[in-house]
Specification:
Length: 976
């Protein structure tokens, strides 16, 4: 009875659905089961690739930083091992009445797999795993001679840390006296000499305006703890406390603390003899040291000799060769009051000046500056005045708009300076180069500091005294209002918005809104308004901008604003409007009157429609609509923006552009976007014969959620993703896709090309600068290139080759006969290759021939290629066209002079590794049961550069060695 009732119940459940939908589930079952198998294959490939990466990194001692990857792997296992089997079993026994029910279930599983596949692409692949965190980070700093004042302080602090009973140490002294520099030396010494006593060294820079919340965030960032999901300080403190306890014994360095803080409120375990931890803080105030029960150590000024030596080190010893200058120089040093920061800054401003008269004038100016109310600021201002370049001075003042101790990303800062028209150039590239040159001058003048974030991003940083000096300059003329990163919850009172105000920075605060009651500040001279990174800012009064007629730059990036105020439409002088990552943005008023606008940035914003009047922005040079929710760009808009230099469009979903419109944009230097179809793509490529963008990403098809890491911004890229070349086009004999002659990167992902070789594109023959080729999840391609006398130059430029899940791939190259005599293969066909990565290609048997030298190969990574027999073929009669190779393989070792990394994983038929590499640093070989020897290691002396060896236990035991002593030596360094 139950077997009859159950289908009826299921059918009743479906009655509420439209009948047509039920019928589609019913009749589409077979087709959907086929799709189910396809999606399963895709997901399994992705799963194997990620799992393989995890396992390889674990071999090298890596650890998972977050649980996101583990959760994803478990979800995949649940679907592939459970749900799919269940639904397939049901489909085998399906009856007429249950067919629609099962059909619906199949669709749901397909959708779940597709969602998992998208999530897999969004996994932070570069952050999934990392090598074990070092117990701190070496910091760049200057060197001291022995018996100098700073060195004596270093010795005193070191003794307290290593031998003394003190658990908390406070280093105090006036600004610019060298507290931070001394502590950088202590940090580095702890990492080099203190490993036995301390497990970790944690350096935290504290800004003047830091609250408990901000201090928690700063410490959490240094120990890779995510506190973003918790706004409650007590809960954050508990999490921080628990994470710090896990660190074991550590030294926590709090640099530039301004107020006494409570350890319990922040979440810092009290340093004690039991936990072995110690705290060192630097501060300008003795009261902070005493308030935190620290042993207080006072920093002292340099001696006269030390001051002179530091000045000479900075300005350069060549200065002594200038006649009559030595006495003047000593007087200049004396004016620096023996403060290291003042000495370095003033010496930087005089570096390279060989005219003694200029030095005498500088001395007079320094003497005059001593009459100011704050002598330190006046001395630093001298260096600002010595720049003698208004643009450089304005550049420095713009850096003061950022919060204290902020690492300012070089690229974003240069964009600001371009928007402020401090930097001007004939084109985008010239502007970027000029910006970097200007910032380098300020670094060389010791007014800015070069730094790099933990993610490798180039930055500059301002010493807080230099920033204070810059703010003091801007308090008079030009007038600045700077309240950046100070925790503001409300916009400054109207009294602060004076008529002569020129620049306002309120970035990185907690402002919630600008209410109607605030009114319209009368600031006709205001040129810059920065409200970015006020993440909770959701609304601005409609009239707020009415009286800001001179506004040139408005930054509302990273706010929660939903509707831009109507008064923005009246900003006729506006040159730059930044709305990056305004993810909740829905409404933008008409831009028709903003005819001066040159830069409009909607990157990753929430807009769904092109703002009204955008076609009127004829001066627009920079337009970024990437990763926004824009559904379409009406025809006829882009072609009117003839002055565009940079255009970035949505490459993930929704927005396509016609190549016919792009043809009108002759001034484009940077372009990225999805072309409408292959005809539109080809039309635009044909137009490039007259010249095209300096950098581009020309894409066909939409991505799976994130851009592939291979697709770099500053390159010339063709990216084909989720795109099928119509069979009719290939059958007609037409070139299915044209490639630009200057393309540098060709990336193909999940495409049905309907071609057996990339050479079928024909236009690839003209690509004389191709450096990287990436192909993933593609069938039909049997050979990468068919070579003939016409294309050897193509393969000679190739530097990176990355192939994953190219299922039908049989080889890299094949000779193209064309009914003509056989063309001899060029001997240097892969001579530029630096990196080769090939995986999940189960039809390939051999990669390279012995006749193809690989003089520049550095990384060779091959995994899960079930049929691979040889890496470098040593069979004399081997033919890539499918001929049967001689089974009598003669092994000839091949020299790869630059090979540093060799990873061979899950290659069950691999018989030999005919490679000699004296430069080898890392070798990983596992799941290669047919290997008998490993020539890179089996020599009288293994490569001197070798750092890491991992060979699976079973393979290690079965290997044959000509040199047993080498085996014993390698055993000692082998990762178990």
């Amino acid at each position: 009875m139950e077997s009859i009732v159950s289908p009826i119940v299921e059918l009743v459940k479906l009655i509420s659905s439209p009948i047509a939908q039920c019928w589609r589930y019913h009749i589409g079952l077979e087709e959907n089961l086929r799709k189910l198998d396809e999606r399963l294959e895709d997901l399994n490939c992705q799963n194997r690739a990620i799992a393989s990466r995890l396992e390889t990194e674990h071999i090298l001692g890596a650890t998972i930083l977050n649980q996101e990857v583990e959760r994803w792997l478990k979800k995949v296992e649940k679907v592939t091992d459970g749900k799919i089997g269940t639904v397939k079993q049901k489909a085998q026994n399906v009856g007429f009445f249950t067919r629609a029910c099962i059909g619906k279930e199949v669709i749901q599983v397909i959708e779940e797999m597709q969602q998992l596949y998208r999530e897999g692409h969004k996994l932070p692949v570069d952050l999934i795993i990392s090598l074990p965190k070092k117990n701190g980070e070496i910091l760049l700093t200057t060197t001291f001679g022995e018996e100098t004042t700073p060195e004596k302080k270093i010795v005193e602090i070191w003794a307290c840390l290593m031998d003394g009973e003190e658990r908390k140490i406070g280093v105090y002294g006036m600004g610019g006296i060298g507290k931070t520099t001394v502590m950088k030396h202590i940090n580095n010494q702890l990492l080099q000499k203190g490993k036995e006593k301390f497990d970790d060294v944690i350096w935290v820079t504290v800004s003047k305006a830091s609250s408990v919340f901000q201090l928690q965030y700063a410490i959490a960032c240094e120990i890779n703890l995510d506190l973003s999901r918790s706004d409650d300080e007590t809960k954050r403190a508990s999490k921080l406390y628990a994470e710090l306890i896990k660190k074991g014994t550590y030294v926590l360095i709090l640099d530039d603390l301004w107020d006494v803080c409570c350890f319990e409120e922040v979440g810092i375990p009290e340093p004690s003899a039991q936990n072995g931890c110690k705290l060192v803080l630097t501060t300008r105030l003795l009261s902070v040291c005493l308030g935190m029960s620290c042993k207080a150590i006072q920093m002292e000024r340099l001696s006269d000799k030390e001051a002179l030596d530091l000045f000479m080190d900075t300005v350069g010893s060549d200065i002594l060769s200038i006649p009559n200058l030595e006495e003047t120089m000593k007087l200049v040093v004396k004016e620096c009051a023996n403060l290291p920061l003042a000495i370095v800054t003033i010496a930087g401003s005089l570096k390279g000046i060989d005219d003694s008269n200029v030095w005498k004038t500088a001395l007079e100016d320094l003497g005059a500056s001593a009459k100011g109310t704050n002598q330190i600021f006046e001395k630093l201002k001298f260096s600002y005045d010595r720049l003698n370049d208004k643009n450089l001075q304005n550049c420095l003042l713009c850096c003061a708009l950022y919060p204290e101790d902020y690492e300012i990303e070089l690229d974003l800062l240069i964009e600001y300076l371009i928007a402020e028209e401090i930097i001007k150039g004939r084109n985008r590239q010239a502007e970027l180069e000029r910006g970097k040159a200007m910032l380098k001058k300020l670094v060389n003048a010791c007014l800015l500091e070069d730094t790099t974030t933990r993610y490798g991003q180039e930055c500059v940083k301002m010493h807080d005294l230099i920033r204070d000096m810059a703010i003091q300059i801007t308090s008079d003329s030009p007038r600045f209002l700077i309240e950046a990163g100070v925790g503001l919850k409300f916009i400054p009172e109207e009294d602060n918005w004076k008529e002569d105000l020129e620049k306002v920075s309120l970035m990185r605060n907690d402002i919630l809104d600008i209410p109607l009651s605030f009114g319209s500040p009368n600031c006709p001279r205001l040129s810059t308004l920065l409200l970015s990174a006020n993440h909770h800012l959701s609304s601005i009064s409609n009239n707020f901008f009415l009286l800001m007629k001179g506004l040139n730059l408005l930054d509302l990036s990273k706010t929660s604003i939903e509707n831009l105020p109507e008064s923005i439409s009246s900003l006729a002088s506006l040159i730059t409007l930044l709305l990056r990552k305004c993810k909740k943005l829905k409404y933008v008023p008409s831009l028709a009157k903003l005819t001066a606008l040159k830069k409009l940035d909607f990157y990753e914003s929430g807009i769904k429609e092109v703002p009204q009047g955008m076609e009127k922005l004829v001066k627009l040079r920079y337009l970024d609509l990437d990763k926004c929710k824009l559904e379409m760009i009406p025809d006829g808009i882009l072609c009117q923006l003839s002055n565009l230099r940079s255009l970035s469009l949505n490459q993930e979903c929704g927005t396509k552009i016609r190549g016919e419109e792009l043809i009108h944009l002759r001034k484009l230097e940077i372009l990225s976007g999805v072309l409408y179809d292959h005809n539109s793509f080809n039309a635009y490529v044909r137009s490039l014969k007259a010249g095209g963008p300096t950098y581009y990403i020309l894409q066909l098809g939409f991505t799976d959620g994130i851009m592939w890491s291979a697709v770099r911004k500053w390159a010339k890229v063709v990216y084909l993703v989720n795109f099928n070349i119509p069979e009719s086009v290939v059958a007609a004999g037409d070139c299915p896709l044209l490639l630009p002659k200057d393309v540098e990167i060709l990336a193909i992902k999940r495409c049905r090309m309907n071609i057996s070789s990339l050479s079928k594109l024909r236009s690839i023959i003209n690509a004389t600068n191709l450096k990287c080729c990436y192909i993933k999840y593609c069938g039909e391609i049997e050979y990468l290139f068919s070579y003939s006398s016409t294309i050897p130059h193509l393969l000679q430029t190739l530097e990176v080759l990355d192939l994953e899940a190219v299922w039908d791939l049989r080889g890299l190259t094949r000779e193209e006969k064309l009914g003509l005599p056989s063309v001899p293969r060029p001997p240097d066909i892969f001579s530029s290759l630096r990196k080769v990565r090939i995986g999940l290609c189960n039809n390939i048997r051999r990669l390279f021939r012995n006749a193809s030298p690989l003089p520049n190969l550095e990384d060779l990574i091959i995994f899960e290629c079930d049929q691979l027999i040889e890496i470098i073929s040593t069979t004399s009669d081997y033919h890539e066209g499918g001929g049967i190779p001689n089974n009598d393989i003669v092994v000839v070792d091949v020299a790869l002079p630059k090979l540093s990394n060799l990873h061979l994983i899950a290659l069950p038929k691999l018989k030999s590794i005919p490679v000699i590499a004296d430069s080898l640093q890392q070798i990983i070989v596992r799941e290669c049961p047919n290997l008998e020897r490993i020539p890179p290691l089996d020599r009288e002396s293994y490569p001197p550069s070798l750092q890491c060896v991992y060979i699976g236990h079973d393979l290690w035991e079965s290997l044959e060695w000509d040199h047993p002593n080498t085996k014993a030596a390698i055993q000692a360094m082998r990762v178990q």
